[in-house]
């Protein structure tokens, strides 16, 4: 298995060719921020790595501006990881018992969310969940931010503990055509149970029947079902990512996925706005799934390349360093009409 030449099916090669059409060329006319302003909402005192890995994947893939919105305790740590990220200590965790009187800006999700919601107009895409934890105040705050993002029809990638919000409050995302859920096998099962989707559905049908059933239960929400293959579906149309990845399942690899999908969604925005002359060959309704495919393909190639170098010692940070090489391997550079 060469680190320079990933093997792929003809179907994957064809889909990657479509994804490539959304990748902006490097042109002098572009200015800062046009090709991607992404924010990751997550990061608590106990979990500082996940939002960093997601935001750095987004940055290294090529978004112009990468933000992390987290708690003050997490912010002070994440700022030491990289000076390239913009870190905003706007989230709050529930105060400990007997902490005395605290202002509403530290305890009221309505007040806490205002500063984050004010940022939405300056962003293209949100990633929610990495390092979020299960703190009730964090979840209530995020629910208010998600409602505001949905009103703006803003693309959002949901992962990890943010998927717990979908389990308990599915109305937050039902029918939201700009959201992408990225559950692992355990999270997928929990969503099936919460949405009362028959877990046996699909056993005698196609391998994509389960993800299609769950997506339909959520009103056509895009879902990336992670596994030996990644299935990306809106309930009606499904594409399969069958690129080979690495064999080490270290924590944090899903954060590379969310950050990568976010950058492709930001590029999707630039494509739909016609920021460069691309011919408009893609149908808008397929571009969200293509963005998810691009992110999944990058993550698998990162994992494959990192595993070739690190083997059993592979860690999430090893994937971060492979993001740009993986992009070059799958998409090349500059020429949007280049053949894969």
From TrEMBL:
<feature type="binding site">
    <location>
        <position position="131"/>
    </location>
    <ligand>
        <name>(6S)-NADPHX</name>
    </ligand>
</feature>
<feature type="binding site">
    <location>
        <begin position="226"/>
        <end position="230"/>
    </location>
    <ligand>
        <name>ATP</name>
    </ligand>
</feature>
<dbReference type="GO" id="GO:0110051">
    <property type="term" value="P:metabolite repair"/>
</dbReference>
<dbReference type="InterPro" id="IPR017953">
    <property type="entry name" value="Carbohydrate_kinase_pred_CS"/>
</dbReference>
<keyword id="KW-0963">Cytoplasm</keyword>
<dbReference type="GO" id="GO:0047453">
    <property type="term" value="F:ATP-dependent NAD(P)H-hydrate dehydratase activity"/>
</dbReference>
<dbReference type="GO" id="GO:0005524">
    <property type="term" value="F:ATP binding"/>
</dbReference>
<keyword id="KW-0520">NAD</keyword>
<comment type="function">
    <text>Catalyzes the dehydration of the S-form of NAD(P)HX at the expense of ATP, which is converted to ADP. Together with NAD(P)HX epimerase, which catalyzes the epimerization of the S- and R-forms, the enzyme allows the repair of both epimers of NAD(P)HX, a damaged form of NAD(P)H that is a result of enzymatic or heat-dependent hydration.</text>
</comment>
<feature type="binding site">
    <location>
        <begin position="184"/>
        <end position="190"/>
    </location>
    <ligand>
        <name>(6S)-NADPHX</name>
    </ligand>
</feature>
<protein>
    <recommendedName>
        <fullName>ATP-dependent (S)-NAD(P)H-hydrate dehydratase</fullName>
        <ecNumber>4.2.1.93</ecNumber>
    </recommendedName>
</protein>
<dbReference type="GO" id="GO:0046496">
    <property type="term" value="P:nicotinamide nucleotide metabolic process"/>
</dbReference>
<keyword id="KW-0597">Phosphoprotein</keyword>
<feature type="binding site">
    <location>
        <position position="255"/>
    </location>
    <ligand>
        <name>(6S)-NADPHX</name>
    </ligand>
</feature>
<feature type="domain" description="YjeF C-terminal">
    <location>
        <begin position="15"/>
        <end position="330"/>
    </location>
</feature>
<dbReference type="GO" id="GO:0005737">
    <property type="term" value="C:cytoplasm"/>
</dbReference>
<feature type="binding site">
    <location>
        <begin position="245"/>
        <end position="254"/>
    </location>
    <ligand>
        <name>ATP</name>
    </ligand>
</feature>
<dbReference type="Pfam" id="PF01256">
    <property type="entry name" value="Carb_kinase"/>
</dbReference>
<keyword id="KW-0456">Lyase</keyword>
<comment type="similarity">
    <text>Belongs to the NnrD/CARKD family.</text>
</comment>
<keyword id="KW-0521">NADP</keyword>
<dbReference type="InterPro" id="IPR000631">
    <property type="entry name" value="CARKD"/>
</dbReference>
<keyword id="KW-0067">ATP-binding</keyword>
<keyword id="KW-0547">Nucleotide-binding</keyword>
<dbReference type="InterPro" id="IPR029056">
    <property type="entry name" value="Ribokinase-like"/>
</dbReference>
């Amino acid at each position: 298995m060469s680190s320079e030449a990933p093997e792929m099916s003809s179907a994957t090669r064809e889909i990657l060719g479509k994804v490539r059409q959304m990748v902006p060329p490097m042109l002098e006319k572009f200015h800062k921020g046009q090709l991607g302003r992404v924010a990751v909402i997550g990061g608590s005192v106990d979990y500082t790595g996940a939002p960093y890995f997601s935001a750095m994947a987004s940055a290294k893939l090529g978004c112009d501006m990468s933000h992390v919105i987290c708690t003050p305790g997490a912010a002070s740590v994440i700022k030491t990881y990289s000076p390239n990220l913009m870190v905003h200590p706007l989230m709050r965790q529930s105060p400990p018992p007997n902490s005395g009187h605290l202002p509403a800006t530290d305890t009221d999700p309505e007040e806490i969310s205002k500063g984050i919601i004010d940022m939405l107009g300056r962003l293209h895409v949100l990633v929610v969940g990495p390092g979020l934890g299960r703190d009730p105040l964090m979840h209530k705050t995020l629910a208010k931010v998600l409602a505001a993002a949905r009103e703006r029809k803003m693309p959002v990638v949901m992962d990890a503990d943010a998927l717990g919000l979908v389990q308990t409050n599915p109305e937050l995302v039902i029918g939201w055509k700009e959201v992408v859920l990225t559950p692992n096998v355990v999270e997928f099962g929990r969503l099936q149970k919460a949405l009362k989707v028959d877990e046996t559905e699909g056993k005698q049908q196609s391998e994509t029947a389960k993800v299609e059933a769950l997506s339909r239960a959520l009103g056509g929400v895009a879902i990336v079902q992670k596994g030996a293959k990644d299935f990306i579906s809106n309930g009606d149309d499904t594409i399969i990512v069958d690129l080979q990845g690495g064999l080490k399942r270290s924590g944090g690899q899903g954060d590379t996925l969310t950050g990568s999908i976010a950058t492709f969604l930001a590029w999707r925005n630039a494509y739909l706005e016609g920021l460069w002359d691309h011919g408009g060959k893609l149908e808008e309704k397929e571009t969200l799934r293509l963005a998810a495919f691009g992110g999944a393909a990058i993550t698998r190639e990162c994992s494959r390349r990192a595993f070739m170098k690190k083997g059993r010692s592979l860690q999430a940070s090893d994937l971060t360093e492979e993001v740009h090489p993986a992009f070059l391997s799958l998409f090349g550079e500059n020429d949007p009409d280049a053949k894969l």
